[in-house]
Amino acid sequence: MKILVGIKHVPDTEAKVKVAADGVSLDETGVKMVPSPFDEYALEEALRIREARGGEVVVVSAGKESAQVSLRQGLAMGADRAVLVHDDRLDRADGLARARVLAAVARAEAPDLILLGKYGVGTDEGQTGPMLGEILDLPHTSAVTTLTLGERTFGARREIEGAVEVVEGSLPAVISCEKGLNEPRYPSLRGIMAARKKPLDVKRPADLGLDPDDLLPGRRVVWESIALPPARRAGRVLKGEAAETARELARLLREDAKVI
Amino acid sequence: MNGNVLVLAERRGGELKRPTFEILGVARRLAEASGGRVDVLALGPGASGCAEAVARHGADRLLVCEADFLELYAPEAYAAALADAARRSEAAVVLVAATILGRDVAPRAAARLGVGCLSDLVEIEPVPGGGLRGRRPVYSGKAIATVSVPSEVRPAVATLRPNVFPVPPATAGRSAEVVPVEAALSPSALRVRTVRVEKPAEQEVDVAEASIVVSGGRGLKAPENFALVRDLARVLGGAVGASRAVVDAGWIAHANQVGQTGKVVSPNLYVACGISGAIQHLAGMSSSKVIVAVNKDPEAPIFKVADFGIVGDLFEVLPKLTEEIRKIKES
User: Which of A170, A242, B69, B117 has its CA 20 to 30 A from that of A20?
Assistant: First the structure.
Protein backbone atom coordinates (compact mmCIF):
# COMPACT_ATOMS: atom_id res chain seq x y z
CA MET A 1 0.00 0.00 0.00
CA LYS A 2 1.33 3.41 -0.98
CA ILE A 3 0.54 6.22 1.45
CA LEU A 4 1.09 9.92 0.89
CA VAL A 5 1.37 12.01 4.07
CA GLY A 6 1.06 15.80 4.01
CA ILE A 7 3.37 17.68 6.38
CA LYS A 8 3.13 21.40 7.05
CA HIS A 9 6.11 23.28 8.46
CA VAL A 10 4.71 25.50 11.24
CA PRO A 11 5.74 27.42 14.40
CA ASP A 12 5.99 25.28 17.52
CA THR A 13 2.85 25.53 19.68
CA GLU A 14 4.96 26.90 22.56
CA ALA A 15 6.12 29.81 20.37
CA LYS A 16 5.12 33.39 21.06
CA VAL A 17 3.67 35.13 18.04
CA LYS A 18 5.34 38.29 16.73
CA VAL A 19 4.08 40.14 13.67
CA ALA A 20 6.69 40.84 10.99
CA ALA A 21 7.35 44.32 9.59
CA ASP A 22 5.04 43.70 6.60
CA GLY A 23 2.10 43.52 9.04
CA VAL A 24 0.78 40.31 7.58
CA SER A 25 3.40 37.61 8.19
CA LEU A 26 4.74 35.96 11.29
CA ASP A 27 8.19 37.10 12.40
CA GLU A 28 9.97 33.75 12.38
CA THR A 29 13.12 35.08 14.05
CA GLY A 30 13.95 32.78 16.95
CA VAL A 31 10.77 30.76 16.41
CA LYS A 32 11.24 27.01 16.36
CA MET A 33 9.57 25.54 13.27
CA VAL A 34 8.24 21.98 13.43
CA PRO A 35 5.97 19.58 11.55
CA SER A 36 2.40 20.51 12.48
CA PRO A 37 1.55 18.30 15.50
CA PHE A 38 -1.54 16.80 13.82
CA ASP A 39 0.60 15.75 10.85
CA GLU A 40 2.63 13.58 13.21
CA TYR A 41 -0.48 11.52 13.96
CA ALA A 42 -0.97 11.12 10.20
CA LEU A 43 2.61 9.99 9.68
CA GLU A 44 2.57 7.64 12.67
CA GLU A 45 -0.60 6.01 11.32
CA ALA A 46 0.99 5.64 7.88
CA LEU A 47 4.09 4.00 9.37
CA ARG A 48 1.97 1.55 11.36
CA ILE A 49 -0.02 0.62 8.25
CA ARG A 50 3.22 0.05 6.31
CA GLU A 51 4.61 -2.06 9.15
CA ALA A 52 1.47 -4.22 9.12
CA ARG A 53 0.90 -4.51 5.37
CA GLY A 54 4.08 -3.41 3.59
CA GLY A 55 4.29 -0.64 1.03
CA GLU A 56 5.73 2.84 0.87
CA VAL A 57 5.26 6.07 2.85
CA VAL A 58 5.96 9.34 1.02
CA VAL A 59 5.90 12.63 2.93
CA VAL A 60 5.04 15.78 0.99
CA SER A 61 5.11 19.47 1.84
CA ALA A 62 4.33 22.66 -0.10
CA GLY A 63 6.02 25.88 0.90
CA LYS A 64 9.38 27.46 1.57
CA GLU A 65 12.69 25.67 1.21
CA SER A 66 12.97 25.57 5.01
CA ALA A 67 10.10 23.04 5.04
CA GLN A 68 12.80 20.47 4.25
CA VAL A 69 13.54 20.48 7.98
CA SER A 70 10.10 19.07 8.76
CA LEU A 71 10.31 16.62 5.85
CA ARG A 72 13.68 15.37 7.16
CA GLN A 73 12.04 14.83 10.53
CA GLY A 74 9.35 12.78 8.77
CA LEU A 75 12.06 10.73 7.10
CA ALA A 76 13.75 10.28 10.48
CA MET A 77 10.49 8.97 11.93
CA GLY A 78 10.50 6.37 9.16
CA ALA A 79 9.02 7.70 5.90
CA ASP A 80 10.72 6.26 2.79
CA ARG A 81 11.10 9.44 0.76
CA ALA A 82 10.00 13.06 0.61
CA VAL A 83 8.73 15.57 -1.93
CA LEU A 84 8.85 19.34 -1.43
CA VAL A 85 7.01 21.62 -3.80
CA HIS A 86 8.96 24.80 -3.32
CA ASP A 87 7.48 28.23 -3.88
CA ASP A 88 7.80 30.95 -1.24
CA ARG A 89 4.37 32.29 -2.14
CA LEU A 90 2.72 29.05 -1.03
CA ASP A 91 2.87 30.09 2.62
CA ARG A 92 0.31 32.78 1.94
CA ALA A 93 -1.54 31.28 -1.00
CA ASP A 94 -5.14 30.33 -0.29
CA GLY A 95 -6.32 26.87 0.69
CA LEU A 96 -7.43 25.96 -2.82
CA ALA A 97 -4.04 26.84 -4.36
CA ARG A 98 -2.25 24.76 -1.72
CA ALA A 99 -4.65 21.86 -2.21
CA ARG A 100 -4.11 22.02 -5.99
CA VAL A 101 -0.35 21.70 -5.43
CA LEU A 102 -0.78 18.65 -3.20
CA ALA A 103 -3.29 17.22 -5.68
CA ALA A 104 -0.70 17.49 -8.47
CA VAL A 105 1.77 15.52 -6.34
CA ALA A 106 -0.94 12.97 -5.55
CA ARG A 107 -1.72 12.51 -9.26
CA ALA A 108 1.94 11.83 -9.95
CA GLU A 109 2.31 9.43 -7.02
CA ALA A 110 -1.09 7.67 -7.28
CA PRO A 111 -1.26 6.64 -3.59
CA ASP A 112 -3.87 4.26 -2.15
CA LEU A 113 -4.35 6.55 0.83
CA ILE A 114 -3.62 10.20 1.62
CA LEU A 115 -3.22 11.09 5.30
CA LEU A 116 -3.06 14.63 6.69
CA GLY A 117 -3.30 16.38 10.05
CA LYS A 118 -6.75 17.78 10.82
CA TYR A 119 -5.34 21.26 10.24
CA GLY A 120 -2.01 23.03 10.01
CA VAL A 121 -1.34 24.62 13.37
CA GLY A 122 -1.28 28.39 12.85
CA THR A 123 -3.74 28.93 10.02
CA ASP A 124 -6.04 26.47 11.84
CA GLU A 125 -8.25 26.10 8.76
CA GLY A 126 -8.56 22.41 7.99
CA GLN A 127 -9.37 23.11 4.33
CA THR A 128 -6.77 20.91 2.66
CA GLY A 129 -8.39 17.49 3.22
CA PRO A 130 -11.89 18.35 1.98
CA MET A 131 -10.50 20.38 -0.95
CA LEU A 132 -8.06 17.64 -1.91
CA GLY A 133 -10.92 15.14 -1.90
CA GLU A 134 -12.93 17.32 -4.26
CA ILE A 135 -10.04 18.12 -6.62
CA LEU A 136 -8.96 14.47 -6.89
CA ASP A 137 -12.57 13.25 -6.97
CA LEU A 138 -11.92 11.06 -3.93
CA PRO A 139 -13.91 10.49 -0.74
CA HIS A 140 -12.60 12.25 2.35
CA THR A 141 -13.20 12.28 6.07
CA SER A 142 -11.73 14.61 8.68
CA ALA A 143 -10.31 14.52 12.19
CA VAL A 144 -10.52 10.78 12.75
CA THR A 145 -9.61 9.25 16.12
CA THR A 146 -9.64 5.62 14.95
CA LEU A 147 -8.91 4.19 11.51
CA THR A 148 -9.21 0.60 10.29
CA LEU A 149 -8.41 -0.52 6.76
CA GLY A 150 -9.83 -3.37 4.70
CA GLU A 151 -8.57 -4.40 1.27
CA ARG A 152 -10.24 -1.50 -0.55
CA THR A 153 -12.27 0.02 2.29
CA PHE A 154 -11.81 2.00 5.48
CA GLY A 155 -13.72 2.55 8.69
CA ALA A 156 -13.20 5.53 10.98
CA ARG A 157 -14.57 7.24 14.05
CA ARG A 158 -14.61 11.01 14.45
CA GLU A 159 -15.69 13.18 17.34
CA ILE A 160 -18.48 15.62 16.65
CA GLU A 161 -20.11 17.95 19.20
CA GLY A 162 -21.16 15.66 22.05
CA ALA A 163 -21.14 12.43 19.99
CA VAL A 164 -19.07 10.21 17.71
CA GLU A 165 -19.67 9.68 13.99
CA VAL A 166 -18.92 6.21 12.65
CA VAL A 167 -17.80 6.56 9.03
CA GLU A 168 -17.29 3.97 6.27
CA GLY A 169 -15.79 4.51 2.86
CA SER A 170 -13.73 3.13 0.02
CA LEU A 171 -10.06 3.57 -0.92
CA PRO A 172 -8.32 5.54 -2.26
CA ALA A 173 -9.37 8.28 0.16
CA VAL A 174 -8.17 11.45 1.85
CA ILE A 175 -8.28 11.19 5.64
CA SER A 176 -7.24 13.83 8.17
CA CYS A 177 -6.10 12.83 11.64
CA GLU A 178 -6.99 14.06 15.14
CA LYS A 179 -5.05 13.79 18.37
CA GLY A 180 -5.90 10.50 20.07
CA LEU A 181 -5.49 8.42 16.89
CA ASN A 182 -2.11 7.11 18.07
CA GLU A 183 1.02 8.10 19.96
CA PRO A 184 3.62 9.35 17.46
CA ARG A 185 7.10 7.84 17.83
CA TYR A 186 10.21 9.90 18.36
CA PRO A 187 12.86 9.62 15.66
CA SER A 188 15.61 7.24 16.78
CA LEU A 189 19.27 8.16 16.38
CA ARG A 190 19.50 5.50 13.67
CA GLY A 191 16.43 6.99 12.01
CA ILE A 192 17.99 10.45 12.03
CA MET A 193 21.20 9.10 10.47
CA ALA A 194 19.25 7.14 7.84
CA ALA A 195 17.10 10.18 7.00
CA ARG A 196 20.12 12.05 5.66
CA LYS A 197 20.49 9.51 2.86
CA LYS A 198 16.81 9.17 1.97
CA PRO A 199 15.61 10.90 -1.22
CA LEU A 200 14.12 14.39 -0.83
CA ASP A 201 12.90 15.58 -4.18
CA VAL A 202 12.43 19.36 -4.59
CA LYS A 203 10.04 20.39 -7.35
CA ARG A 204 8.67 23.70 -8.55
CA PRO A 205 4.93 24.15 -9.22
CA ALA A 206 5.67 24.45 -12.97
CA ASP A 207 7.34 21.00 -12.89
CA LEU A 208 3.94 19.60 -11.91
CA GLY A 209 2.18 21.38 -14.75
CA LEU A 210 0.63 23.97 -12.41
CA ASP A 211 -0.08 27.56 -13.38
CA PRO A 212 2.28 29.58 -11.15
CA ASP A 213 -0.14 32.52 -11.20
CA ASP A 214 -2.68 30.36 -9.38
CA LEU A 215 -0.43 30.60 -6.32
CA LEU A 216 -0.48 34.38 -6.20
CA PRO A 217 -1.50 35.49 -2.73
CA GLY A 218 -4.77 37.36 -2.91
CA ARG A 219 -6.10 35.61 -5.98
CA ARG A 220 -9.09 34.17 -4.12
CA VAL A 221 -8.40 35.04 -0.48
CA VAL A 222 -6.49 38.14 0.62
CA TRP A 223 -4.56 38.11 3.89
CA GLU A 224 -4.71 41.81 4.69
CA SER A 225 -3.04 41.90 8.08
CA ILE A 226 -2.41 40.06 11.31
CA ALA A 227 -2.33 41.71 14.71
CA LEU A 228 -2.01 40.62 18.30
CA PRO A 229 -5.33 40.39 20.14
CA PRO A 230 -6.06 43.08 22.72
CA ALA A 231 -4.25 42.13 25.92
CA ARG A 232 -6.45 41.08 28.82
CA ARG A 233 -6.01 43.01 32.02
CA ALA A 234 -5.30 41.04 35.14
CA GLY A 235 -8.32 41.37 37.37
CA ARG A 236 -9.07 40.99 41.07
CA VAL A 237 -7.20 38.40 43.06
CA LEU A 238 -8.85 37.15 46.24
CA LYS A 239 -6.70 35.84 49.04
CA GLY A 240 -7.60 34.46 52.42
CA GLU A 241 -9.61 31.68 53.96
CA ALA A 242 -11.20 29.29 51.42
CA ALA A 243 -14.82 29.65 52.58
CA GLU A 244 -14.59 33.44 52.51
CA THR A 245 -12.90 33.78 49.11
CA ALA A 246 -15.33 31.24 47.61
CA ARG A 247 -18.32 33.18 48.94
CA GLU A 248 -16.91 36.47 47.63
CA LEU A 249 -16.14 34.96 44.21
CA ALA A 250 -19.66 33.52 43.88
CA ARG A 251 -21.09 36.96 44.74
CA LEU A 252 -18.84 38.72 42.18
CA LEU A 253 -19.81 36.26 39.44
CA ARG A 254 -23.47 36.83 40.23
CA GLU A 255 -23.57 40.56 40.86
CA ASP A 256 -20.61 42.10 39.00
CA ALA A 257 -19.92 39.80 36.08
CA LYS A 258 -23.54 38.57 35.88
CA VAL A 259 -22.48 35.23 34.39
CA ILE A 260 -24.28 32.90 36.81
CA MET B 1 -21.29 42.88 -2.79
CA ASN B 2 -24.52 42.64 -4.73
CA GLY B 3 -26.50 39.49 -4.55
CA ASN B 4 -28.03 36.81 -2.44
CA VAL B 5 -26.76 35.09 0.66
CA LEU B 6 -27.01 31.31 1.04
CA VAL B 7 -26.94 29.70 4.49
CA LEU B 8 -26.46 25.98 5.16
CA ALA B 9 -28.82 24.87 7.93
CA GLU B 10 -27.35 22.31 10.30
CA ARG B 11 -29.81 19.79 11.69
CA ARG B 12 -29.13 17.09 14.24
CA GLY B 13 -31.89 14.63 15.10
CA GLY B 14 -34.33 16.79 13.13
CA GLU B 15 -33.60 19.91 15.21
CA LEU B 16 -31.84 23.01 13.90
CA LYS B 17 -28.64 23.71 15.77
CA ARG B 18 -28.17 27.08 17.43
CA PRO B 19 -25.30 28.26 15.15
CA THR B 20 -27.73 28.14 12.21
CA PHE B 21 -29.71 30.95 13.84
CA GLU B 22 -26.50 32.85 14.60
CA ILE B 23 -25.45 32.85 10.93
CA LEU B 24 -28.99 33.64 9.77
CA GLY B 25 -28.67 36.91 11.69
CA VAL B 26 -25.45 37.70 9.82
CA ALA B 27 -26.98 36.64 6.49
CA ARG B 28 -29.95 38.96 7.04
CA ARG B 29 -27.61 41.89 7.75
CA LEU B 30 -25.50 41.22 4.62
CA ALA B 31 -28.57 40.71 2.42
CA GLU B 32 -30.10 43.96 3.58
CA ALA B 33 -26.88 45.84 2.83
CA SER B 34 -26.81 44.41 -0.71
CA GLY B 35 -30.54 44.33 -1.44
CA GLY B 36 -30.39 40.56 -1.92
CA ARG B 37 -32.31 37.61 -0.62
CA VAL B 38 -31.48 35.11 2.14
CA ASP B 39 -31.77 31.49 0.98
CA VAL B 40 -31.33 28.56 3.36
CA LEU B 41 -30.42 25.02 2.31
CA ALA B 42 -31.65 22.20 4.57
CA LEU B 43 -30.92 18.54 3.89
CA GLY B 44 -32.46 15.23 4.99
CA PRO B 45 -35.88 13.82 5.77
CA GLY B 46 -38.21 16.39 7.34
CA ALA B 47 -36.00 19.33 6.31
CA SER B 48 -39.00 21.36 5.13
CA GLY B 49 -40.21 21.32 8.75
CA CYS B 50 -37.72 24.05 9.61
CA ALA B 51 -39.32 26.57 7.19
CA GLU B 52 -41.14 28.52 9.87
CA ALA B 53 -38.15 28.74 12.20
CA VAL B 54 -35.72 29.92 9.50
CA ALA B 55 -38.28 32.37 8.10
CA ARG B 56 -38.79 34.00 11.50
CA HIS B 57 -35.02 34.40 11.74
CA GLY B 58 -34.59 36.04 8.36
CA ALA B 59 -34.82 33.50 5.51
CA ASP B 60 -36.71 34.40 2.32
CA ARG B 61 -36.48 30.99 0.69
CA LEU B 62 -35.82 27.47 1.98
CA LEU B 63 -34.24 25.04 -0.47
CA VAL B 64 -34.86 21.48 0.73
CA CYS B 65 -33.68 18.08 -0.36
CA GLU B 66 -35.43 15.51 1.81
CA ALA B 67 -33.74 12.35 0.46
CA ASP B 68 -33.35 9.68 3.16
CA PHE B 69 -29.65 9.17 2.50
CA LEU B 70 -28.97 12.77 3.54
CA GLU B 71 -30.11 12.17 7.12
CA LEU B 72 -26.53 11.66 8.33
CA TYR B 73 -23.53 13.61 7.11
CA ALA B 74 -22.07 12.47 3.78
CA PRO B 75 -19.25 14.82 2.72
CA GLU B 76 -19.52 14.34 -1.06
CA ALA B 77 -23.31 14.67 -1.15
CA TYR B 78 -23.49 17.64 1.22
CA ALA B 79 -20.72 19.52 -0.61
CA ALA B 80 -22.33 18.90 -4.00
CA ALA B 81 -25.72 19.99 -2.65
CA LEU B 82 -24.23 23.18 -1.18
CA ALA B 83 -22.35 24.04 -4.39
CA ASP B 84 -25.48 23.37 -6.48
CA ALA B 85 -27.60 25.53 -4.18
CA ALA B 86 -25.04 28.36 -4.40
CA ARG B 87 -25.39 28.32 -8.20
CA ARG B 88 -29.17 28.03 -8.08
CA SER B 89 -29.42 30.92 -5.60
CA GLU B 90 -26.92 33.01 -7.57
CA ALA B 91 -25.34 33.53 -4.19
CA ALA B 92 -22.70 36.22 -3.71
CA VAL B 93 -22.00 34.86 -0.23
CA VAL B 94 -22.30 31.35 1.22
CA LEU B 95 -22.30 31.14 5.03
CA VAL B 96 -21.79 27.95 7.03
CA ALA B 97 -21.32 27.55 10.78
CA ALA B 98 -17.76 26.58 11.76
CA THR B 99 -19.01 23.45 13.51
CA ILE B 100 -17.38 20.05 12.90
CA LEU B 101 -19.77 19.53 9.98
CA GLY B 102 -19.47 23.06 8.62
CA ARG B 103 -15.68 23.12 8.74
CA ASP B 104 -15.71 19.90 6.73
CA VAL B 105 -18.32 20.65 4.08
CA ALA B 106 -17.55 24.31 3.30
CA PRO B 107 -14.03 23.80 1.88
CA ARG B 108 -15.15 20.85 -0.24
CA ALA B 109 -18.04 22.91 -1.64
CA ALA B 110 -15.69 25.87 -2.21
CA ALA B 111 -13.29 23.65 -4.18
CA ARG B 112 -16.24 22.43 -6.25
CA LEU B 113 -17.08 26.05 -7.03
CA GLY B 114 -13.42 26.86 -7.74
CA VAL B 115 -13.23 29.48 -4.98
CA GLY B 116 -11.41 29.88 -1.66
CA CYS B 117 -12.90 29.74 1.80
CA LEU B 118 -12.61 32.06 4.81
CA SER B 119 -12.54 29.84 7.91
CA ASP B 120 -13.83 30.46 11.40
CA LEU B 121 -14.67 34.16 11.19
CA VAL B 122 -15.53 36.08 14.36
CA GLU B 123 -16.34 39.32 12.51
CA ILE B 124 -17.73 39.80 9.02
CA GLU B 125 -18.64 42.82 6.90
CA PRO B 126 -19.26 43.65 3.25
CA VAL B 127 -16.43 45.58 1.56
CA PRO B 128 -17.67 48.86 0.05
CA GLY B 129 -17.57 48.38 -3.71
CA GLY B 130 -17.73 44.60 -3.50
CA GLY B 131 -16.18 41.66 -1.73
CA LEU B 132 -16.35 40.33 1.79
CA ARG B 133 -14.01 40.97 4.69
CA GLY B 134 -13.68 39.18 8.01
CA ARG B 135 -11.51 38.73 11.02
CA ARG B 136 -10.44 35.39 12.47
CA PRO B 137 -8.19 34.09 15.21
CA VAL B 138 -5.02 32.42 13.93
CA TYR B 139 -2.35 30.53 15.90
CA SER B 140 -5.30 29.45 18.08
CA GLY B 141 -6.02 33.02 19.06
CA LYS B 142 -2.46 34.23 19.61
CA ALA B 143 -3.12 36.60 16.70
CA ILE B 144 -6.10 37.93 14.77
CA ALA B 145 -6.00 37.99 10.97
CA THR B 146 -7.99 40.27 8.68
CA VAL B 147 -8.88 38.37 5.53
CA SER B 148 -11.04 39.14 2.52
CA VAL B 149 -12.47 37.77 -0.70
CA PRO B 150 -12.08 40.10 -3.71
CA SER B 151 -15.30 41.23 -5.41
CA GLU B 152 -14.60 39.29 -8.62
CA VAL B 153 -14.54 35.97 -6.73
CA ARG B 154 -18.11 34.69 -6.42
CA PRO B 155 -19.44 33.31 -4.28
CA ALA B 156 -17.45 34.22 -1.19
CA VAL B 157 -17.60 31.12 1.04
CA ALA B 158 -17.09 31.59 4.77
CA THR B 159 -17.50 29.62 7.98
CA LEU B 160 -18.49 31.53 11.13
CA ARG B 161 -17.39 30.56 14.61
CA PRO B 162 -20.29 29.40 16.83
CA ASN B 163 -21.11 31.24 20.04
CA VAL B 164 -19.82 34.58 18.71
CA PHE B 165 -22.62 36.13 16.66
CA PRO B 166 -25.81 36.89 18.60
CA VAL B 167 -29.13 35.34 17.59
CA PRO B 168 -31.40 38.27 16.71
CA PRO B 169 -34.97 38.16 18.01
CA ALA B 170 -37.43 36.25 15.80
CA THR B 171 -39.83 38.26 13.66
CA ALA B 172 -43.34 36.85 13.88
CA GLY B 173 -45.32 36.58 10.65
CA ARG B 174 -42.34 36.25 8.28
CA SER B 175 -42.61 33.30 5.93
CA ALA B 176 -40.27 31.60 3.50
CA GLU B 177 -41.02 30.00 0.16
CA VAL B 178 -40.11 26.27 0.28
CA VAL B 179 -38.30 25.13 -2.88
CA PRO B 180 -37.72 21.37 -3.22
CA VAL B 181 -34.45 20.50 -5.01
CA GLU B 182 -33.13 17.22 -6.41
CA ALA B 183 -30.16 15.56 -4.69
CA ALA B 184 -26.99 16.67 -6.48
CA LEU B 185 -25.50 13.16 -6.31
CA SER B 186 -27.21 9.78 -6.28
CA PRO B 187 -26.65 7.62 -3.18
CA SER B 188 -24.83 5.01 -5.30
CA ALA B 189 -22.20 7.62 -6.24
CA LEU B 190 -21.16 8.13 -2.61
CA ARG B 191 -17.88 6.56 -1.53
CA VAL B 192 -17.97 7.72 2.09
CA ARG B 193 -20.83 8.14 4.52
CA THR B 194 -21.69 8.29 8.18
CA VAL B 195 -23.26 4.95 9.10
CA ARG B 196 -24.30 5.91 12.61
CA VAL B 197 -23.87 8.49 15.36
CA GLU B 198 -23.01 7.17 18.81
CA LYS B 199 -23.99 9.22 21.83
CA PRO B 200 -22.32 8.63 25.17
CA ALA B 201 -24.53 7.00 27.80
CA GLU B 202 -24.29 10.07 29.99
CA GLN B 203 -24.65 13.09 27.73
CA GLU B 204 -22.15 15.77 28.68
CA VAL B 205 -22.09 19.31 27.31
CA ASP B 206 -19.33 19.65 24.70
CA VAL B 207 -16.67 22.23 25.65
CA ALA B 208 -16.85 23.81 22.20
CA GLU B 209 -20.57 24.50 22.56
CA ALA B 210 -20.89 25.32 26.26
CA SER B 211 -21.51 28.81 27.60
CA ILE B 212 -19.70 27.85 30.82
CA VAL B 213 -16.54 25.72 30.95
CA VAL B 214 -14.80 24.48 34.12
CA SER B 215 -11.32 23.08 33.40
CA GLY B 216 -8.87 21.11 35.48
CA GLY B 217 -5.09 20.82 35.23
CA ARG B 218 -2.15 19.23 36.90
CA GLY B 219 -2.97 20.98 40.18
CA LEU B 220 -5.68 18.33 40.67
CA LYS B 221 -2.82 15.91 41.42
CA ALA B 222 -4.74 12.71 40.45
CA PRO B 223 -7.39 11.74 37.88
CA GLU B 224 -10.02 10.91 40.50
CA ASN B 225 -9.89 14.51 41.72
CA PHE B 226 -11.57 15.60 38.48
CA ALA B 227 -14.72 14.92 40.53
CA LEU B 228 -14.20 18.38 42.10
CA VAL B 229 -14.20 19.98 38.65
CA ARG B 230 -17.20 17.91 37.51
CA ASP B 231 -19.18 18.90 40.63
CA LEU B 232 -18.57 22.59 39.97
CA ALA B 233 -19.38 22.20 36.25
CA ARG B 234 -22.61 20.40 37.12
CA VAL B 235 -23.87 23.06 39.50
CA LEU B 236 -23.01 25.74 36.92
CA GLY B 237 -24.59 23.77 34.06
CA GLY B 238 -21.26 23.87 32.24
CA ALA B 239 -18.88 21.58 30.39
CA VAL B 240 -15.71 19.96 31.74
CA GLY B 241 -12.43 21.04 30.12
CA ALA B 242 -8.81 20.11 30.71
CA SER B 243 -5.24 21.20 30.07
CA ARG B 244 -3.00 19.33 27.66
CA ALA B 245 -0.84 17.99 30.51
CA VAL B 246 -3.67 15.97 32.07
CA VAL B 247 -5.00 14.78 28.71
CA ASP B 248 -1.52 13.56 27.78
CA ALA B 249 -1.32 11.86 31.17
CA GLY B 250 -4.53 9.98 30.32
CA TRP B 251 -6.64 11.47 33.14
CA ILE B 252 -9.40 12.59 30.77
CA ALA B 253 -10.32 12.26 27.08
CA HIS B 254 -8.85 14.48 24.39
CA ALA B 255 -12.40 15.66 23.57
CA ASN B 256 -12.13 17.72 26.78
CA GLN B 257 -8.80 19.40 25.94
CA VAL B 258 -8.79 23.18 25.67
CA GLY B 259 -5.84 24.82 23.91
CA GLN B 260 -3.84 24.87 20.73
CA THR B 261 -3.96 21.12 20.02
CA GLY B 262 -7.41 20.81 21.59
CA LYS B 263 -10.46 23.00 21.30
CA VAL B 264 -10.52 26.78 21.14
CA VAL B 265 -13.39 28.04 23.29
CA SER B 266 -14.98 31.40 24.02
CA PRO B 267 -17.65 30.77 26.68
CA ASN B 268 -19.27 33.42 28.87
CA LEU B 269 -17.46 31.99 31.88
CA TYR B 270 -14.23 29.96 31.96
CA VAL B 271 -13.03 28.58 35.31
CA ALA B 272 -9.43 27.29 35.32
CA CYS B 273 -8.70 25.04 38.30
CA GLY B 274 -5.11 24.07 39.01
CA ILE B 275 -4.03 25.20 35.53
CA SER B 276 -0.85 27.29 35.46
CA GLY B 277 -1.60 28.78 32.03
CA ALA B 278 0.93 27.53 29.48
CA ILE B 279 0.91 29.65 26.32
CA GLN B 280 -0.80 26.97 24.30
CA HIS B 281 -3.61 26.71 26.88
CA LEU B 282 -4.06 30.49 27.05
CA ALA B 283 -4.35 30.54 23.25
CA GLY B 284 -7.39 28.29 23.50
CA MET B 285 -9.40 30.21 26.10
CA SER B 286 -8.25 33.85 26.20
CA SER B 287 -11.28 35.02 24.23
CA SER B 288 -13.64 33.82 26.99
CA LYS B 289 -15.80 36.66 28.26
CA VAL B 290 -15.07 36.15 31.98
CA ILE B 291 -12.12 34.11 33.23
CA VAL B 292 -11.74 32.76 36.77
CA ALA B 293 -8.55 31.10 38.02
CA VAL B 294 -8.04 29.02 41.13
CA ASN B 295 -4.38 28.23 41.74
CA LYS B 296 -2.09 27.98 44.72
CA ASP B 297 0.79 29.73 42.92
CA PRO B 298 0.24 33.52 42.87
CA GLU B 299 2.83 33.80 40.06
CA ALA B 300 0.98 31.41 37.72
CA PRO B 301 0.54 33.01 34.24
CA ILE B 302 -3.18 32.20 34.31
CA PHE B 303 -3.68 35.10 36.76
CA LYS B 304 -2.46 37.54 34.06
CA VAL B 305 -5.58 36.83 31.99
CA ALA B 306 -8.06 36.13 34.80
CA ASP B 307 -10.80 38.62 35.67
CA PHE B 308 -11.16 37.00 39.08
CA GLY B 309 -8.61 34.83 40.81
CA ILE B 310 -8.38 32.91 44.03
CA VAL B 311 -4.90 32.17 45.29
CA GLY B 312 -5.43 29.10 47.38
CA ASP B 313 -5.67 25.34 47.69
CA LEU B 314 -8.19 24.10 45.15
CA PHE B 315 -9.02 21.09 47.32
CA GLU B 316 -10.42 23.54 49.88
CA VAL B 317 -11.70 26.23 47.50
CA LEU B 318 -13.58 24.15 44.90
CA PRO B 319 -16.00 22.36 47.28
CA LYS B 320 -16.78 25.70 48.98
CA LEU B 321 -17.28 27.44 45.63
CA THR B 322 -19.58 24.63 44.44
CA GLU B 323 -21.57 24.98 47.65
CA GLU B 324 -21.82 28.79 47.39
CA ILE B 325 -22.98 28.62 43.77
CA ARG B 326 -25.52 25.94 44.63
CA LYS B 327 -26.89 28.25 47.33
CA ILE B 328 -27.17 31.13 44.83
CA LYS B 329 -28.86 28.89 42.25
CA GLU B 330 -31.35 27.65 44.83
CA SER B 331 -32.17 31.04 46.24
Answer: B117
